[in-house]
């Protein structure tokens, strides 16, 4: 009993008997380097814009890359029935293996056979295609490494990479060549620290679709320098007449490829968050990468199990007519926008080959009152209530991107307003010269 009585009975007494290492005397909660380095360029730019629509005109938002926003594009009945059946069956309420249920991975393996031989063991299910890209960049990159990304390009590549301390090196897409990559420049960017080349096809924000020969040239560069490819193919099969989709992995049996896809765009269910990675290994080069992806996939304990249970029916039962009608609608919208904007002085649209977007060049020298594409977009919203994303969101100034998924009548109205806006602000060469001369005279009189 004496021993028990002698034991310290309070926390204060316990602390008095052992040294305290902490010297803290105030709250100072810091964030991680990962959080500090992670940022979304589009959000940063858009939040800095002065977006005040004209109260007399309904806002037409041609900025949102969500095909479901306006309700005119809906998933197929087969897709909806599949998820309804999964709910009623009650088999999707629990956890799944981190890489996904076997039946769902088998369905994906069947669906992507155009990419080359794929087994369920090559498939990892993710929480949307952005999650797929996140895992791919995470498994290949590390501080001090660099990845090659397209410019203009989807900003999430930079968002995902820079948090890890990975340098992003941009290779140019050339508007005069329908946004094909500058292959000479691309190859010159590669060094010993290059861990991956990201190829986006079909493309966002350009709507580009690379010809087979161009893709083969890109793959040859990757093979020559032993650089694995991350293929962002979320818009696979979203191609307009006269173009053909070729999966990167189908073009070589020597270059290892991580192909990213999902339900988001083609099946019109971005909110269901179902994406996947297809591991195209070459002679065991990706053996360690497979283990790394398995490790990383447990961080979120797998993707949405309800959608996983519905996935076989969604992929197997959605008719081709649904996809054909969707592409036909987007192509009609693209032609409508292109032909209308082509007639507007000061704007140079580039007809897309697929996906859901169009890039439009601004002849800035004929709009001298606007210093940048940002001020052009701000004024367009303020005067005409038409909002497009400025090119700087994609590291490509003096352009803006518009989406093609809005209802057709909104595209017609948006083109009409764009024409009115440009007619009001466009300056001919003589006008610009006169303005410059007047400005010079004003400066001289002030002297």
From TrEMBL:
InterPro entries: Aminotransferase_I/II_large (IPR004839), NHTrfase_class1_PyrdxlP-BS (IPR004838), PyrdxlP-dep_Trfase (IPR015424), PyrdxlP-dep_Trfase_major (IPR015421), PyrdxlP-dep_Trfase_small (IPR015422), TyrNic_aminoTrfase (IPR005958), Tyrosine_aminoTrfase (IPR005957). Residues 59-418 form the Aminotransferase class I/classII large domain. Pfam families: Aminotran_1_2. The keyword Transferase applies. It is an enzyme of class 2 (transferase). PROSITE patterns: AA_TRANSFER_CLASS_1. Keywords: Aminotransferase, Phenylalanine catabolism, Pyridoxal phosphate, Transferase, Tyrosine catabolism. The keyword DNA repair does not apply. Homodimer. NCBIfam families: tyr_amTase_E, tyr_nico_aTase. This is Tyrosine aminotransferase. It comes from Anopheles culicifacies.
